[in-house]
Amino acid sequence: MSGTLVVTGSAGMLGRRVVGDATAAGWNVIGLDLRDADLIVDLTDEAATTEAVVDAGPDAIIHCAAWVDVDAAESQEEAALRVNGLASRNIAKAAKAAGARLVAVSTDYVFDGTLTGRPYVESDPTAPIGAYGRTKRVGEEAIAEETDDYVIARTAWLFGWPGKSFPDTMLRVGAERGEVAVVTDQVGSPTWTGHLSPALVELAAPGGVTGVAHTAGGGQTSWHGLTVELYEQAGIEATVNETDSSAFVRPAPRPAWSVLATEREGVPVLPDWREGVSGYLAERSQS
Ligand SMILES: NC(=O)c1ccc[n+]([C@@H]2O[C@H](COP(=O)([O-])OP(=O)(O)OC[C@H]3O[C@@H](n4cnc5c(N)ncnc54)[C@H](OP(=O)(O)O)[C@@H]3O)[C@@H](O)[C@H]2O)c1
Fold first, then answer.
1. Any residues with CB less than 8 A from the CB of 286 and at least 6 apart, and which?
2. How far is ligand 1, taken at its centre, from the CA of residue 8, in Å?
3. pLDDT at residue number 249
4. What does the pLDDT look like over 227-244, one tens digit per residue?
């Protein structure tokens, strides 16, 4: 693919991976972030965002920048909203001004998690139960208002290396303590950045689907199931005890059901989450 691609959040866990995959796919990639990037821009600044993006002249933008601290968002919702809502509106306006297609990453937290028996698909109604999900949903709506050629790629339970993630924590804790307790009553679609990133690059190509696209790892498991699989594949001999959310009260409520799948033609389908665990462990062992 030839053309220029701006990747926001290019210094983050997902963005870094997208920069590499898009470059390998032939894009001329320009990274944008608050630090360690080709373009140092605060996306909450509308004028600076438009100027930087229009000057870069992209054919497409993959928007990975976000406020991702789910618990901190509960006490700092306004600050989270500036990034997930306002900055998303700004990047959408800039995309429109530059004539660029926009692929923006969103989350399973836009759903309340009360569905059972089947994955959430794109046409299911959103109903966030916490501040992070509310602010990401505001961002989704802002993007749809500001531009036409966009994809909102919702994903879930994201992990990649390097980066702070659940598997990273569990690998350290398991090796140190030999015993962990993990919740069984939250079920989702763990997603490896190594699977999501090429899908985002594919979605950035001209003429693809527009609107909401669910792009999460295939299959489903609980945090407990993910930990058991992780330790098995990593050869960690730690006991994984079962517990539930009532024993792990945190500032932000978590949806009990975060399984996402696509009902749409033309949306890339990601491999099974267990393959994601293998890919993650392989990339960790190489660094
Ligand atoms: N992590 C998950 O489990 C998960 C699950 C579902 C969806 N997602 C979504 O996936 C996407 C990528 O997440 P990630 O885990 O890769 O996040 P990340 O590692 O925190 O990367 C986000 C990047 O955006 C930057 N950023 C924040 N505010 C900015 C601003 N105002 N202007 C410019 N850049 C800004 C951050 O800089 P600082 O670090 O300096 O703030 C960081 O480098 C996000 O849209 C997130 O909502 C994540």
1. none
2. 9
3. 83
4. 999 999 999 999 999 999
Catalytic residue among 132, 150, 231, 280: 132
Average pLDDT across each block of 10 residues of the chain; the chain has 287 residues. List them in order.
Answer: 94 98 98 98 98 98 98 97 98 98 98 96 98 98 98 98 96 91 96 98 97 98 98 96 90 94 98 98 93
Q: Which of 196, 156, 201 is nearest to 62 (CA)?
A: 201
Strand, coil or helix: 166: helix
The pLDDT assigned to 175 comes to 85
Any idea what the Cα angle at residue 254 is, between residues 249 and 258, rounded to 5°? 145
- Domain residue extents for the chain: 4-162+189-217+259-270
Between the CA of 67 and the centroid of ligand 1 the distance, in Å, is 6
| pLDDT, position 1 | 72
Dist CA 108 CA 50 (whole Å): 29
- 221, two tokens: 């498991």
User: CATH homologous superfamily of domain 4-162+189-217+259-270?
Assistant: NAD(P)-binding Rossmann-like Domain (3.40.50.720)
Identify residue 96 by its one-letter amino acid code.
K
What's the per-residue H, E or C state across 180-246?
Answer: EEEECCCEECCEEHHHHHHHHHHHHCCCCCCEEEECCCECCEEHHHHHHHHHHHHCCCCEEEEECHH
132 catalytically annotated: yes
Structure tokens at 132: 């992070």
